[in-house]
Design brief:
The complex is a heterodimer of chains A (119) and B (372). Chain A has 119 residues and is mainly alpha-helical. Chain A has a single domain, classed as Response regulator (Rossmann fold). Chain A contains five helices and three strands. Chain A has helices at 6-18, 29-38, 55-64, 82-91, 103-117; strands spanning 44-46, 73-77, 95-98. Chain A has a three-stranded parallel sheet with strand order 1-2-3, with helices on both faces. In chain A, helix 2 packs parallel to helix 3 (55-64). Chain B folds into three domains: 70-185, Leucine-rich Repeat Variant, CATH 1.25.10.10; 190-251, Leucine-rich Repeat Variant (Alpha Horseshoe), CATH 1.25.10; 255-372, Alpha Horseshoe (Leucine-rich Repeat Variant), CATH 1.25.10. Chain B has helices at residues 3-54, 66-80, 86-97, 100-107, 113-125, 132-137, 144-157, 162-169, 179-189, 194-203, 206-218, 225-234, 238-251, 257-263, 269-282, 287-297, 302-313, 317-326, 330-336, 351-365. The relative contact order of chain B is 0.04. Classes of the chains: A mainly alpha (119), B mainly alpha (372). The interface between A and B is medium-sized, with 15 and 17 residues.
Amino acid sequence: MADDDVDIRELVAFKLEREGHVVLAFGDGESALAEARSEVPALVILDVMMPRMTGIEVCRALRAEPSTADVPILLLTARAQESDVEQGFETGATDYIVKPFSPRELMARVRAALDRSDR
Amino acid sequence: MSVEATLEVAVAVVGIALVASLAAMVSARVVRAIAGRRRSRATQRLRPLLVAAAAGEPLPHTALGRIERRLLIDMAVEYLGKVRGEGSEALRRLLAEQGGLDSMRGQLTDRSAVHRAHAALVLGAAGDAASRTGIEALLDDADFEVRATAVRSLGQLGDPHSVVAVLARVGHPGRPLAFGTVVMALVTIGPACIDDLLGVLGGGRTPGRQVAAEALGLLDAVGAVDAIARAAEHDDDAEVRIRSLRALGRLGSPRAVPVLVRALDAEVVGFRAVAARSLGVIGDGAGAVVDALTRAVAGPEVVVSVNAAQALAQLGEPGRVALESLVRPPDHASAGVVSPTGDLARTWVGPDVAVAEALARLALNRPPGGTS
């Protein structure tokens, strides 16, 4: 997952690890993309507004590569306008979650995305 | 005492003073460094507790020291802005259990404005309903920042009983509240304040009516369309009318369309400009709307031309046809961009430019090979 807010990174990692997932957390989109290219993840959670590379750009890059084109991508962002949500899905996001978020709901969406992708 | 002896004493005094001030500086730095390290260690100790709380996990009873309790308040407020649901509930419980809410309630009447504002901020973020009257009292605070924080905090508390108190102080001559802060607080309270806003829009003081018109639009108060439409046409204050015209666009109701079309013929340029934009947002492509916007594009004011052309571009096929009918051959266009009054701005941006820009945007938005 990638988010430039350390509180969110720690919180999401904590919840995912409690459910038995291994989490790699990054503070910018570019590092997350590099990691996803070297080892394809089961699921990606991205903030949108991040330094060096936005979540939308990372999402687009992941969808453009055959190895990561089918990886579920959840956008977790404070951008809540209809146009933002629309852009997120148009870019290829699997789901879109608006901050402030419910960690419990996030986990439900993670489980659903993983179930659908059969990973 | 000889001159030499006096000089020696003076040098010694200066030396001692220098050494003493140096020692004071060094010790102040050491004290600050120690305090910083303590804070840092306390932050690291608290992080797992706050992460678990924000994640909505059950928390063990934890005894905290004085420094940790103070830190916990600010850290919990940070997390409260990032999570909702059981995570925010757990953070509020943690704050209450550690005495954070009690200490903040006490600080609402502190002599320091910084402490009063901080207390209002924390109690608002924590959703402490018991603090509502204490925070409302800060709306009359002598300090502007304290008043602004109090308004935001009342918004976060979400109690519609605060609406009247907030609106009564908008436009206060001596202790004003910032317009935008008040509007956003009302929007944060949500639909529960719509009835009070309607009451103010129908007969309150002018600043209150301005706030009410703006907030009702942002709250998507579709049931308030008729009241807002009346304000848009008949209010004594131009600002109320402009904000009402904008709110009608946001609400998107077809019932607002006749009012907006009539406003395109208003004398005040601002009314026409905002009405044009609102008609574009509503997107009703009826013939009367298209005709009125087409006339508005050809009008003398640049801002109205541009808004009307953009609005036509938002109406779909009828708007596109109207825009294309407005395109003139270059020789006519160059003659047409100079207004009869010789307005210089019209030589730079006139109806033709507005139409061209709107058509260009339409073309960009049109799917490849498709129709609009």
